[in-house]
């Protein structure tokens, strides 16, 4: 069965605590996008807000740093209650060193693969990552179709992970729709990051739909 990490960017931002409680039975963690207005032309979520939300659920928070200088945000978000930190490879001088720094905090670590990035970019780091987040849309936008390259990238990642005997998980973020989820499932994805699909639709229906897909066929 596919796992679900609900994106709070698509929640009712005026009622985040209530939205967390409403969606909590239908997701396994919450995905929190953090944008600094520099890496992308967008401002999203910040440590004090995450800290304020932390008491409202025991589900894990994965913090997706869409920022330059993610090193400066690591400690504030760890202190705020993040369980996983995801960053972009081109935002740090030494991705391997930053992976080690994140792991030293006891948190899980992930890297994002942009729409325009080849899978080979992350190959040197796969063994050290808990998760790879494959972006299905260009950064800073939502409500648009998934790029057609995504299932192929996920299948390529799945082969590499399987061949190397790794336990790295694959997550798809962006363009998550009822029509695209089966394609992602077939390609070998472990997690999806639904936004409007879960917050604007029927979350119980989505959970039944994911259950109906059954186990992934490798």
Summarize the entry for a quick read.
The protein has eight helices and nine strands. The chain has 218 residues and is α/β, with parallel strands linked by helices.
Shape, per Cα inertia axes: globular
Strand order of the largest sheet: 1-2-4-5-6-7-8-9
Percentage of residues in strands: 15-25%
Segments where pLDDT lies below 50 for 5+ residues? Answer: none
Distance between the termini: 13 Å
Number of strands: 9
Q: What is the makeup of the main sheet?
A: 8 strands, parallel, barrel
What is the helix/strand order?
EHEEHEHEHEEHEHEHH
- Looking at the structure, the CATH topology is TIM Barrel
| Helix content percent band | 25-40%
Could you tell me the radius of gyration in angstroms?
16 Å
Arithmetic mean pLDDT: 96
- Classified by CATH, the class is Alpha Beta
CATH architecture classification: Alpha-Beta Barrel
Give me the number of helical elements: 8
CATH superfamily: Aldolase class I
| Number of domain modules | 1
Give the class from helix and strand content and strand pairing.
alpha/beta
Please describe what this structure looks like.
The chain has 218 residues and is α/β, with parallel strands linked by helices. The protein has a single domain, classed as TIM Barrel, CATH 3.20.20.70. It has helices at 16-23, 47-53, 71-80, 95-104, 150-163, 181-187, 196-199, 203-212; strands spanning 3-7, 29-36, 43-44, 61-66, 84-88, 108-113, 131-135, 169-173, 191-193. The chain has an eight-stranded parallel barrel with strand order 1-2-4-5-6-7-8-9. The longest helix is centred in the last third of the chain and has 14 residues, at 150-163. The two termini are 13 Å apart. The model has no long low-confidence stretch (mean pLDDT 96).
């Amino acid at each position: 069965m596919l796992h679900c990490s609900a994106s709070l960017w698509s929640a009712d931002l005026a009622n985040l605590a209530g939205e967390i409680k409403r969606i909590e039975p239908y997701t396994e963690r919450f995905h929190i996008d953090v944008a600094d207005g520099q890496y992308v032309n967008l401002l999203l979520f910040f440590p004090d807000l995450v800290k304020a939300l932390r008491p409202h659920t025991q589900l894990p928070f994965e913090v997706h740093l869409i920022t330059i200088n993610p090193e400066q945000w690591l400690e504030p978000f760890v202190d705020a209650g993040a369980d996983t930190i995801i960053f972009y490879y081109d935002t740090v001088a030494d991705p391997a060193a930053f992976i080690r720094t994140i792991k030293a905090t006891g948190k899980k670590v992930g890297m994002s693969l942009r729409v325009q990035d080849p899978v080979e970019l992350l190959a040197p780091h796969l063994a050290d990552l808990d998760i790879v987040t494959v972006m299905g849309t260009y950064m800073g936008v939502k409500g648009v179709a998934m790029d057609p390259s995504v299932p192929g990238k996920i299948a390529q990642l799945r082969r590499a992970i399987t061949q190397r005997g790794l336990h790295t998980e694959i997550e798809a973020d962006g363009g998550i729709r009822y029509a695209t989820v089966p394609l992602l499932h077939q390609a070998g994805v472990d997690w999806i990051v639904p936004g409007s699909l879960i917050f604007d639709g029927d979350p119980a229906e989505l959970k039944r739909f994911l259950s109906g897909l059954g186990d992934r066929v490798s």
